[in-house]
Amino acid sequence: MDGTTVPPGRMPPYEAPTHEDAEWADAILFGTPCYFGAMATELKNYLDLLGPQ
Fold first, then answer.
1. Domain segments of the chain: what residues?
2. Three-point CA angle 10, 13, 40, nearest 5°
3. CA dihedral over 10, 28, 41, 35, signed as positive or negative
4. DSSP assignment letter at 17
5. What is the C-alpha separation between 24 and 29, in angstroms, rounded?
6. Which CA distances in Å does 13 have to 10, 23, 30, 53?
7. What span, in angstroms and rounded, lies between the C-alpha atoms of 43 and 50?
8. What tens digit of pLDDT does each residue of 9-35 get?
């Protein structure tokens, strides 16, 4: 494999969402594993960054 093709059944890598992505979107769906009743830290960090600074 030369690094430009994606094996069957695998998704290509994507860039992390930005604050601008959340501003233009009509809706945002979040999916996360649940760890002891809390969402994944990566998602919590992203949501915290969306709020007022």
1. 19-50
2. 95
3. negative
4. P
5. 14
6. 9, 22, 18, 29
7. 11
8. 777 777 777 888 888 889 888 888 887
Question: 6, 10, 50: which is closest to 30 by C-alpha?
Answer: 50
Question: 43 and 30 in contact (C-beta within 8 Å)?
Answer: yes
What pTM value is reported for the model?
A: 0.56
pLDDT of 4: 64
The CA-atom distances, in angstroms, between 50 and each of 1, 36, 45 are: 38, 24, 9
CA-derived radius of gyration, the chain: 15
CB 8 within 8 A of CB 1: no
